[in-house]
Structures are given as C-alpha cells and as structure tokens.
Amino acid sequence: MEKRRKRTRYLTPGLVFQSVLIGGGYGTGAEIARYFGSHGLLGGLLALGATAAAWALLCAVTFEFVRVFRTYDYGSMMRRLLGRAGFLYDLCFYAMLLLVLGVVNATAAAMVRALTGLPPWVGVALLSAGVVLLVLKGTEAIERALSLWAYVLYAVYLLFLTAVFLRFGDAIASELQKGEIGSGWLFGGLRYASYNLICVSMILYTLRDLRSRREAVTCGVLAGILGAAPALPLLLAMGCDLPAALASETPVTAIFERLNMPWLYVLFEIVLFGTLVETAAGFIKALEDRLEQALFRRRSFELARPLVTGAVTALGICVSTFGLTELIDKGYGAICYGALFLFALPMLTAGVGKIRRAGG
C-alpha cells in the first residue's frame, strides 16, 4: 500500500498536468504540426525534447517551491513569489481561462456535429454537463478522473500509432532518414513550452503529499515528460505524410482519412472529447482554489462552489459564440508572454533563491 501511495505521489501531478494540457489544438495535432512538424520529422523530435526539458525544469522548481512554502493554489504561490505584484498573474489567468473555455466549447460543438450530425449545442451541453459534474465532485475526484483518463488516452494513442506504423511504417522510416532539421527547432520547442506555462500553476493541489525535495524534483521531471509524451505518437504518425499533415487544419483527421479505420477514429474522438472536459475542469478548479483561498478563508466555499462553477461554465459558452480566431492568435501570445515574465522567469531566478534561503 505504501509503494502504491508513493507511486501515486510521483505520477499524479504529471498525469493531471498532461490532462490539462492536451485539450484543443494539442489533441487534434494542429499545435504538434505547427510547432514541431514544421521543422521536419527529426527536427520536430528535437523540438519536442526541448519542450519536455523546459517543462521538466519549471515543474521541478515550482513543485519544490510549493512544497517548501505550502502554496497549493496559484494565488498563494504568486503572492509568495512576487509579493504585492502577484495580482498581475491573476489577470493573465483570467484572460487565459476565457480563451480556453471558449475554445473547448467551440471544439466540442464541432466534434459532435462532425461525428453525429447533431446541432452544435448538443456538444456544448455534453461538455458543460461533464465539466460541472467533475468539478463539483471535488479535488480527489478530479485527481482520479484526470489520472485515469490519462492512461486511457495513452492507450488509444499507442493503438493509433501502432495502426499507422503497420500501414505506413516504411513512409515514416523514410521521412526520418531524410534527417530534416529546421533551423528554428529549438526556438519552436521553447516557444510551445512557453505557451503552456499557465498549466503548471493549475495543478498545485496535486502536490500536497510531497514529502521531500527528491520527490518534488522527480515529480517535476516526470510531469515534463508525461506532458510531452502524447505529442510523440502524433508527430511520428504525421511522418506517414508530413506535407498533408502540415496543410490540414486538423492533422489527425487527415491521417485517419488515409488510415481508413472508422472505429478507431470514433474511439480517438471520444477520448479527445474527454480531454476537453478535463481541460475546462482543470481551469475552473484552479480558479475556485484561488477564490476559496482569497475570499473564503474563514467560511466554507462549498455553498458558493456550485454557483461559481455554473457561472464560469456559462461564461465559457458565451465566449465560444464569438469569432475566436484573431483573439487566439493575438491574445494567446500576449497572455503567454505575461506568464513567462510573471511566473517562469521569476520562479527560475527569485524562486530558486527563496527556496535556498528557506533551507528546502
């Protein structure tokens, strides 16, 4: 039993991190093609390694910071890290929350319509119901659900990669043998890592059981690896026809059209829909932890939780009705620069200093 608990302590933060990351463009392969595949298959693998290393470094330092100072919500962490300027990070988080909820709702509507022909509101309703039920079940239920679904996702992704290799293995090997490495592979990998920095600060509630610096650092390194792991089968699968994958808005769909395995495509889409629920629930959970710590420290948050969950979910539905393409292209980058300068760089400099002064 002790070994099981120890294994859970090591794996749960990384599995939850991966679950929050993968909704939307990650799961459909769009982001994988843009930030990795565009550098060639070999260059993309190198860029993915850079992303994993950057996440691992930031997660390791952040997890140790949280363990030392017991800051299990991002608000407490940023206040300890930045002092009175910590509220600026709230602005980044709120803006990202709106964008992400809008994107996952719009994606869910499009997925359900494409698979079943049902009206878009059905997809939004299914997503919203899943998010509300998951968030209201509480922290432990969210940890279990996100961790278990991560295993399901890995299994389906490996099944997908196996099917692609059996059909197009020679084409993938040929693409690798080209040895194409785009000149901007390192920048591309680090850029993608920076675009998802906020996700690191969303999983702090999973760190309450960390007991030592070794556990914190190990969890952080595993989180970086697990966060990048689903991109590996997607990127390799794109090697069967990399130009077509790069030209498609949803590269995974383009691969499935060549693969011609409808049952696997449906299974893949179901799993991807689940990741949308996870991503939205993860953001709302992080927001509620912040509100509970900031506003409800002396009285129970349980009465307010259903109201907050419902209101934020409804707000995400409203945002999804707007044209989000330009907003995402321009606003997403600005938000991520904010996270870089308000979170990542201070954590890797001032945060390390604070940990050393605290004696670990």
Secondary-structure topology with pairs:
Elements: H1 2-21, H2 25-28, H3 30-35, H4 41-69, H5 74-82, H6 87-116, H7 120-136, H8 139-177, H9 185-195, H10 197-200, H11 213-228, H12 231-238, H13 242-247, H14 251-259, H15 262-295, H16 305-320, H17 325-358
Describe the structure.
The protein is an all-alpha fold and 360 residues long. It has a single domain (10-349), classed as Hydantoin permease. The chain has 17 helices and no strands. Helix 1 (2-21) packs across helix 8 (139-177) and helix 6 (87-116) packs antiparallel against helix 15. It is globular, with a radius of gyration of 20 Å. The model has no long low-confidence stretch (mean pLDDT 86).
